[in-house]
Amino acid sequence: MNAPPxxxxxxxxxxxxxxxxxxxxxxxxxxxxxxxxxDVLHRGHVEYLFAARALGDLLVVGLNSDDSVRRLKGxxxxxxxxxxxxxxxxxxxxxxxxxxxxxxxxxxxxATLLPDLLVKGGDYRxxxxxxxxxxxxxxxxxxxxxxxxxxxxxxxxxxMARGDAACPSP
Length: 170
Prior knowledge:
This protein is of the alpha/beta class and 170 residues long. It has helices spanning 16-23, 43-53, 66-73, 82-90, 107-113, 132-137, 153-162, and strands at residues 31-36, 58-64, 97-101, 117-121, 141-145. A 5-stranded parallel beta sheet has the order 3-2-1-4-5, sandwiched between helices. It starts with 15 loop residues before the first helix and ends in an 8-residue tail after the last helix.
């Protein structure tokens, strides 16, 4: 059995221009795109990313920059800096490419990349997903993947702030 070669995480982190040059339309591979802060990677993230990758040939993760996370989540976030978050994400077998974006949303990135599938977690409705109109107009589709109950970074941060040591069972 020949396993695919391991790609070092740093080689999977691409600036937007290089991402678009390599994987922009038209392409032969079925490209799946998702995005988020991924501040503290947890089971919910891992299961979500593996489910997203299973929908296509290539999973690209748009990662909010530190400034973007602060604008969205407040001055105490992110807990981990963007370079660390990018390397941890890129270290997952399910993730093929990580690219950072500075904006509050990945709207421009999605509109230029035009993924075949745009994926978000079950806390979204397809019609509310940023970039959905552009992806659908280009012949792609939006998929919503169910969340793992009780597994979120916000829940983890709140539990730590309360001093709860025990992790809830799934």
